[in-house]
Design brief:
The complex is a heterodimer. Chain A is an all-alpha fold. Chain A is built from 6 helices and no strands. Chain A folds into 2 domains: 32 residues; 64 residues, no CATH class. Chain B folds into 2 domains: 181 residues, no CATH class; 52 residues, no CATH class. Classes of the chains: A mainly alpha, B mainly alpha.
């Protein structure tokens, strides 16, 4: 198959599937009542899902490698988490987290 | 359209997202650089940013495309990664319920990790569906604009940034800024801790299934902790 055509098929189909996933339950529960237990469980979506997303990003390039060796991203991420917890500021978290990583990388060298 | 953009809620959402947008700039650049390196033309790069509008899915699609994976495998893998959007959709459903269907269909397009977290926080503070919807529209518009622009800059000029700056670390930092302030109750901490352990334990699963699986396990853990705490305090 032509490479450009293949890429466009991926773009359109993945785009459509992503949109349907985004719309799914918003549309489904627009005219129905949500079971109380489900509503309760959904309160934990941000904490659980965002944590599951962020952990592998910090443990890059590989999760297994990070757990064995010293990865300066781990302490830098902890610094950022503490800053975020107390300041609730994206800007402060970003700047102090990046500075922590740069300092740690300079020491590791 | 003009009165929408002039509304206070819209502008608040737009401005609130600007720091997050700054942090996501490297993510957009990475997507653009990757697309260029994989042999995509500028139009396909623009198509990915505007239509898929998901950094994680784009990076994955480009990696698999560059590795010459079959079309169906690329689509399936991106779909599995996008399953978390189902959870976001469910969590947003009660908040968007009072809004007309046309609004729900438009706002759904802008549902991303970042805009979801911001919207949930906003709705928890105000309980105002219309204002919350406008605020969400502002968040989504800021993210979408930033996303398309940075993807294209990455496509044309992304290789100019030295790798030693580790700018890609800004991506997890943005997520940390969203999630760390949430951990103020025992059930929330349980949800996060269990999800963290699960995502490491399940790392070997194919197609990035570990992310969605760990998210679900964390949600169950949080709910159980919440129910247990309620029973405990009711005694």
């Amino acid at each position: 198959m032509d490479g450009a055509l293949k890429l466009w098929i991926v773009i359109v189909v993945v785009g459509a599937l992503n949109y349907l996933s985004r719309l799914s339950f918003i549309a489904f529960f627009a005219s129905r009542e949500m079971p109380p237990l489900l509503a309760r469980a959904l309160r934990f979506v941000p904490a659980a899902m965002l944590t599951a997303l962020v952990i592998p990003m910090v443990l890059t390039p590989s999760v297994a490698g990070s757990l064995q060796g010293v990865n300066p991203r781990i302490p830098a991420a902890i610094v950022a988490a503490v800053v975020a917890y107390f300041t609730r500021s994206t800007l402060a978290t970003l700047s102090l987290g990046m500075i922590a990583l740069w300092v740690l990388q300079a020491f590791a060298r | 359209m003009r009165h929408l953009i002039a509304s206070e809620d819209f502008r608040e959402g737009f401005v609130e997202m600007l720091p997050a947008c700054l942090g996501l700039v490297p993510f957009g650049l990475v997507c653009g650089v990757g697309a260029q390196a994989a042999g995509a033309d500028w139009l396909a790069t623009l198509g990915m940013a505007t239509i898929i509008f998901s950094g994680a899915a784009q990076v994955l699609a480009i990696q698999l495309y560059a590795a010459d994976a079959p079309t169906l495998v690329i689509i399936l893998t991106c779909f599995v990664l996008g399953l978390r959007l189902l959870m976001y959709s469910a969590a947003m459903a009660p908040l968007l319920k009072p809004l007309p269907p046309s609004w729900q269909r438009s706002l759904a397009f802008l549902l991303t990790d970042q805009s979801f977290a911001a919207a949930i926080r906003r709705f928890a503070e105000t309980h105002d569906a219309r204002g919350g919807g406008l605020h969400f529209l502002g968040c989504g518009a800021a993210l979408w604009l930033m996303w398309v622009v940075t993807n294209m800059i990455g496509f044309y000029a992304g290789n100019a940034i030295p790798a030693s700056w580790s700018l890609d670390f800004a991506v997890p930092l943005c997520f940390i800024a969203l999630v760390a302030p949430l951990f103020r109750s025992v059930p929330t901490v349980a949800a996060g801790l269990v999800a963290a352990v699960a995502v490491i334990a399940l790392d070997a699963l194919p197609m990035k299934l570990s992310l969605v699986a760990a998210g679900l396990i964390g949600i169950v853990a949080g709910t159980i902790a919440d129910v247990a705490r309620e029973r405990w305090t009711a005694r």
